[in-house]
């Protein structure tokens, strides 16, 4: 970690909104210098988020526009962060897309796009951030975004679930390779968190978004749907010096880090029933956000 009074330097991808934005705000409050990223179509939202971070924390976040599925853009983002902020200590590979729909409706283009953003994007973020961290010689934190769907397959979310399983394999393998450099690698695996992504997915699988969100809340052991700050609380710990001995955590045993926070709180049988009922009236098209 950085030797200055700052906690270090953190880049969070897909952070103009939702979970990424909450993580950026939280890490800035924790004392990190922050860089935020999203696709060009979200440039205005990124500027609004930059303003909000400054108002809430007094920190001016660096904006790095770019697509995480494009190698040169990820490389360029890391270079920009290093040049402007002086290095990189925490990489949160949060950007992702959530296509929903029956597996037999998935086209190869849709399959390739979801894997490009979710899996290739996470790989590129881990790769170029870790190369920089190794060169700096002061360790670091790589944090990925898997999902409850990365621990258990789900009806009408087969493509999304496949990408999130892949992120867990990547995270565990990276932890084994980078540990000797003082770099830890973990991923969060939330159940439903109330963001634009989950609302769109709820629409796709259940039709009435508010009804589906209410059902998620009822399925949760704590009686409410998660919010982005719940995930940011976990990432705050994973990014901190206190998580130094925790790495490769994405697994499904009862005591691993993400089950402590969110995943085991959800009753996946209930989720399967919801999907089952939707199968009787399936959505006709996959929904892939354009970037
Ligand atoms: P969101 O859709 O609100 O935000 C995702 C952001 O990623 C968007 O701003 C989007 O523009 C950006 N993005 C998409 N493609 C990109 C690309 N190629 N390059 C850069 N940025 C890109 O979603 P969210 O709910 O905040 O989810 C954040 C992460 O958490 C995702 O990886 C998601 O799969 C994961 N997750 C979310 C939930 C949930 O219930 N919301 C649950 C489990 C996991």
TrEMBL record:
Keywords: NADP
SUPFAM superfamilies hit by this protein: NAD(P)-binding Rossmann-fold domains
Single GO MF annotation: oxidoreductase activity, acting on the CH-OH group of donors, NAD or NADP as acceptor
Gene Ontology biological process terms in this record: fatty acid biosynthetic process
Superkingdom of the source species: Eukaryota
Pfam family, one: adh_short_C2
Family of the protein in this entry: Belongs to the short-chain dehydrogenases/reductases (SDR) family.
Name of protein: Short chain oxidoreductase
